[in-house]
Amino acid sequence: MIHTSSGRDSIDLVETDDESSLASLQEQIYPDEVKRIQQQRLEAIRTATHQNNNIANNSNFIENQNPNIVTHLNVTCDGCFISPIRGDRYKCLFCSNIDFCQLCKYESKVNHPSNHVYNHPLLCIKDSRDYPQSMYMQNRSQIHHTQSKCNSCLRYPIIGIRYECACGITLCEKCEFIGIHDHSHRRMKIAFP
């Protein structure tokens, strides 16, 4: 028998193989805690169900607005993981392989992938077929400049497009885009190592 100093009644320890008996014992010992956890689970289920219903309803709404909606083949939304993306596609200009569908573009920053910052600029692409050869439409995560390090953010290796300034400074896409280095300097854009 164990006596606790928290003011609870004494507790007899009993060995059991039955999980339901253990759950029942926990409810007797910590009824408020068990109730709080059950409420949190129920709220999480409600929230997930509500979000799934919103995505389904909004997808149907978008499709009903325009029956000739464009499909972006071989592109997966990094917010809801739907593939292919239907409707407008939003491509991150900083991250090498981040795309969002119309719905997830407007979702809160919580739903964005961990390697993507919610305030990165996104390029709206109405139809991917209009830009088949564009470097910005392609997945640039496979482009590794293994001999280069960004002089601003110190990223090594640089992944994606890198920029070499005439003065010898090397920049990654993100640092070049946000204007870290002098804009009057000429730069060479290097897409392949």
Automatic annotation (TrEMBL):
Location in the cell: Cytoplasm, Cytoskeleton
Keyword set includes Cytoplasm: yes
Pfam family, one: ZZ
Domain ZZ-type: 72-130
One of the record's GO cellular component terms: plasma membrane
Gene3D superfamilies membership: 3.30.60.90
Main location (coarse class): cytoplasm
Keyword annotations: Calcium, Cytoplasm, Cytoskeleton, Metal-binding, Zinc, Zinc-finger
Key word Metal-binding present: yes
Domain of life of the organism encoding this protein: Eukaryota
GO molecular function terms listed in the Swiss-Prot or TrEMBL record: zinc ion binding
InterPro entries in alphabetical order: KCMF1/Dystrophin (IPR050774), Znf_ZZ (IPR000433), Znf_ZZ_sf (IPR043145)
The protein, known as: ZZ-type domain-containing protein
